[in-house]
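User: Can you recover a sequence for this backbone? Please restate the input before giving your answer.

Assistant: Of course. Working from this structure:
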């Protein structure tokens, strides 16, 4: 069998087979060998000489010199230097002779290197199971990605358990600095999750609760259970101390993949007056999911269970207080059928409102696989259960039982039948039947029946006629509101559909349906459609006509006259002679010739029109009648990059039918269309029904953009102070390294003839390698409702960098007003760091130490009077960046504020901070921080 050189790389992704829910696919390999040893089937995949074979296990990536796929045991053995990348948690495992079990998704190996986005772990023995990774005699560090030959700090542990995305737990650990042991620890826990899942201690003070302490402290139990202790202290509540626990268990039992348990017993908050409310509120959440292997099942039985109760935050009168909701589902699939068990319930006080989503006290679903007998296909489904849900108000028996909700049993049977077979040439018979029957413990029943028969006749490949007879029947009234059947009881529409191509590029369609159970006024109209796509004409139209009432229901059309290729000749190649055959006559030869797509005399001009009609539903209806009629004319340039179109919209139901005039234009001109083009684009619309003009124009030339935009109402009430807005701007095209823009405009009043609140805005951004300058300013000019001219806001920000040296500065100014009086209610705020100097120190290409010195000040003036007398303050800082950890400090000389923090992967931890008011404090020690 070794001769099976399949060229798998050329074949692409070839599936070898499925291991329960996992599929192994070959991406690249040299040879494929099949063996059968001791009753076991082996597929041996080898990479090219000096290279590696590449496989994919679902979304996981595998590379190895040689791969042995045991189809019997469902295992992959990666021989030689191998790499396994897990797509789910982003881990990469490298080692010798890795073994992957495709059934339970586990992996084992020796001398394995594990790396992810945060850690690198080396283990003598490694075992990976869902939700957990275990390593013995391991060495791990967050500094491996920093590129240093000696890691700043690392750990050597006898046993390590990694819960991806949550935490790492190590036992009997040596703490190493520069690979030198300095400390022995019985265990180490490193958080790997998001910030909201990190250890947390917060201290504060509240007007009602007094001093408060909230602490979330993680812990681990054994190899598979992670937990967090939740401690809460509120000084004035009764009791003051509350607590709970948050547990997560991974594969703790043979048939359990994951289990979560959360509970928090919290003292009730005080009343608004400060009175104590004795007692505690309970939040409870428990969930478990797993798989149970069954002998004959296609895949293991899967199940999920959850129980949730939320009292914290609920008022004493809330209907959700004291209510626990349970939800359980289990499903299994066998070769001939699948089954499902559902349970949804609530515990606690009975609901006082209607239950919209039913409680499935017990529900069993049996779904046999679809089967076929000749041309007949069938699909059946059975559902039986006991439900609690809102009462159907149209069910008299359910209403007499009393109450908003009802509990009873229900059996539902659903089946679908389909039979199709050809009759004669081009003809086909199709029969379908669908049935849903529901039978309730109250004695009620509902039936939904649908039967349809259809004959289709096709000829000439493009023509068809379809005759279809349908029958629908709904009967019975459900006692539940959630599964009520439609109010339509009987329906038997007979429909005829025709689709034909009577001429080249012309399609005609027609359809008509009649239901004997409907009155003439209720019958659906017949629909006729015609589409023509023969240049220079393009037409799409449809018509709805009701034969029963002999009225036109609707008409829609769109027609376009134009052919941009009318002036172009296309060569039609010569056609050789074809001799006669028993089924076809002879065809003479034809010479080559040139043809035009159409005889349209204006290739650059096109004309289009659209409109229609809708019959009013009532004599007083205003949204019907003739639809808006739009006539559009378009003229295109020589290269079609320039075009100009004018459109008029008419509403013939109005006394003055012209509703709106609009134009769109694009003009490209220039002696050099690449280096020196001029582009003008714009859109203008004049609305006459609600008089308004809106639109804008943009001119681009040599990288400059000139634009104007307006939106103005031509009629306005006497109390309205503005008609709309008008804006003019000029600048270069956005996105460039150096860009600027200057704009002027704002609110505009056509009645008074001027801007009401105009402003002049300028923006400038200059960027070069190592240099950056940004400026922005808004100057308010005089207007009809703005009697003063002043600087509204300004901002200046710049930075210069050369190697490891950085000089930067920024300043911002803003003025706000509470009145229109020039010198009253004016607040000016100036924030500036006029100078910020930084330098990086270290021998490496990337500095290890950054030193900064900043001048910082904030000035606030109210009506010209300064509010904060603090002088300009120098602030010194440093950052020690060691890739996997960082130390950062800052000292405000004048304000006498200081802080020191250490950063670990994913989070910064403040070590010490202080100011003149509170003195020094250690944030990590709760009681060293005074309450705010």
């Amino acid at each position: 069998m070794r001769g099976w050189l399949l060229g798998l790389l050329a074949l692409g992704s070839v599936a070898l087979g499925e291991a329960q829910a996992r599929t192994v696919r070959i991406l690249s390999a040299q040879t494929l060998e099949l063996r059968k040893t001791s009753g076991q089937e082996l597929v041996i995949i080898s990479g090219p000489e000096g290279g590696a074979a590449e496989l994919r296990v679902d979304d996981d990536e595998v590379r190895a010199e040689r791969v042995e796929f045991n189809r019997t045991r469902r295992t992959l053995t990666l021989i030689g230097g191998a790499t396994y990348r897990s797509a789910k948690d982003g881990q990469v495992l490298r080692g010798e002779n890795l073994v992957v079990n495709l059934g339970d998704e586990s992996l084992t190996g020796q001398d394995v290197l594990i790396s992810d986005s945060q850690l690198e772990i080396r283990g003598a023995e490694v075992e990976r199971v869902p939700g957990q990774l275990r390593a013995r005699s391991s060495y791990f560090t967050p500094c491996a990605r920093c590129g240093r030959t000696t890691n700043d700090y690392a750990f050597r542990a006898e046993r390590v358990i990694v819960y991806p995305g949550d935490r790492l737990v190590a036992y009997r650990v040596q703490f190493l600095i520069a690979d030198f042991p300095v400390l022995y620890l019985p265990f180490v826990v490193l958080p790997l999750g998001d910030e909201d899942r990190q250890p947390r201690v917060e201290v504060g003070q509240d007007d009602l609760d007094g001093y408060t302490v909230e602490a979330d402290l993680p812990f681990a139990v054994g190899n598979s259970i992670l937990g967090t202790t939740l401690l809460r202290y509120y000084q004035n509540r009764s009791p003051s101390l509350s607590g709970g626990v948050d547990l997560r268990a991974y594969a703790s039992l043979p048939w359990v993949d994951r289990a979560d348990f959360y509970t928090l017993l919290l003292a009730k908050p005080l009343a608004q007056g400060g009175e104590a409310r004795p007692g505690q509120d309970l939040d409870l959440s428990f969930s478990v999911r797993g798989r149970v292997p069954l002998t004959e099942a296609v895949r293991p039985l899967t199940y999920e269970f959850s129980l949730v109760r939320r009292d914290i935050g609920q008022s004493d009168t809330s209907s959700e207080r004291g209510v626990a909701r349970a939800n359980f589902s289990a499903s299994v699939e066998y070769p001939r059928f699948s089954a499902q068990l559902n349970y949804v319930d609530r515990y606690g006080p009975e609901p006082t409102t209607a239950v919209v989503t039913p409680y499935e006290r017990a529900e069993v679903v049996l779904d046999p696989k679809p089967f076929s007998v000749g041309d007949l296909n069938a699909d059946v489904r059975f559902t039986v259960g006991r439900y609690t849900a809102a009462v159907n108000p149209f069910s008299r028996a359910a209403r007499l039982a009393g109450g908003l909700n009802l509990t009873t049993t229900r059996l539902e049977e659903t089946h679908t039948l389909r039979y199709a077979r050809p009759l004669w040439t081009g003809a086909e018979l199709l029969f379908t039947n669908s049935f849903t029957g529901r039978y309730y413990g109250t004695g009620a029943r509902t039936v939904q029946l649908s039967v349809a028969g259809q004959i289709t006749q096709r000829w000439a490949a493009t023509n068809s006629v379809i005759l279809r007879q349908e029958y629908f029947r709904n009967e019975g009234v459900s006692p539940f509101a959630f599964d009520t059947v439609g109010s339509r009881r009987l329906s038997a529409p007979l429909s005829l559909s025709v689709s034909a191509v009577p001429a080249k590029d012309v399609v005609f369609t027609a359809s008509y349906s009649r239901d004997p159970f409907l009155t003439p006024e209720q019958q659906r109209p017949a629909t006729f459609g015609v589409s023509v796509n023969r240049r220079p004409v393009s037409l799409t139209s449809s018509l709805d006509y009701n034969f029963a009432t002999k009225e036109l229901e609707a008409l829609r059309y769109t027609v376009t006259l134009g052919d941009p290729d009318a002036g172009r000749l296309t060569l039609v190649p010569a056609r050789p002679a074809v001799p006669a055959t028993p089924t076809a006559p002879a065809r003479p030869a034809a010479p080559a010739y040139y043809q035009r797509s159409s005889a349209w005399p204006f290739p650059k001009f096109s004309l289009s029109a659209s409109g229609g009609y809708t019959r009013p539903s009532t004599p007083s209806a205003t949204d019907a009648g003739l639809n808006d009629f739009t006539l559009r004319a378009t003229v295109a340039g020589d290269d079609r990059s320039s075009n100009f179109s004018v459109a008029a919209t008419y509403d013939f139901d109005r006394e003055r039918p012209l509703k709106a005039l609009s134009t769109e234009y694009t003009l490209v001109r220039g002696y050099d269309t690449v280096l020196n083009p001029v582009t003008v684009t714009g859109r203008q619309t004049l609305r006459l029904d609600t008089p308004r003009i809106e639109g804008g124009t943009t001119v681009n030339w040599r990288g400059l953009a000139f634009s104007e935009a307006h939106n103005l109402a031509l009629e306005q009430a006497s109390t309205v102070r503005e008609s709309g807005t008008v804006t003019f701007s000029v600048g270069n095209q956005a996105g460039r390294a150096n860009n600027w823009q200057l704009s002027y405009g704002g609110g505009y009043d056509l009645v008074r003839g001027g801007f009401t609140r105009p402003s002049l805005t300028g923006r400038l951004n200059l960027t070069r390698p190592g240099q950056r300058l940004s400026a922005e300013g808004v100057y308010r000019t005089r207007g009809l409702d703005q009697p003063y001219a002043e600087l509204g806001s300004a901002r200046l920000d710049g930075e210069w960098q050369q190697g490891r040296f950085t000089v930067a500065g920024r300043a911002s100014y803003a003025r706000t007003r509470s009145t229109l009086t020039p010198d009253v209610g004016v607040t000016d705020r100036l924030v500036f760091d006029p100078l910020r100097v930084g330098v990086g120190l270290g021998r490496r290409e990337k500095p290890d130490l950054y030193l900064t010195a900043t001048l910082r000040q904030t000035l606030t003036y109210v009506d010209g009077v300064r509010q904060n007398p603090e002088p300009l303050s120098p602030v010194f800082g440093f950052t020690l960046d060691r890739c996997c950890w960082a130390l950062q400090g800052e000292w405000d000389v004048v304000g006498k504020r200081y802080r020191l923090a250490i950063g670990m992967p994913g989070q910064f931890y403040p070590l010490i901070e202080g100011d003149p008011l509170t003195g020094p404090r250690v944030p990590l020690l709760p009681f060293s921080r005074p309450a705010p």
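That completes the design. The CA atoms of residues 10 and 603 lie 49 Å apart.
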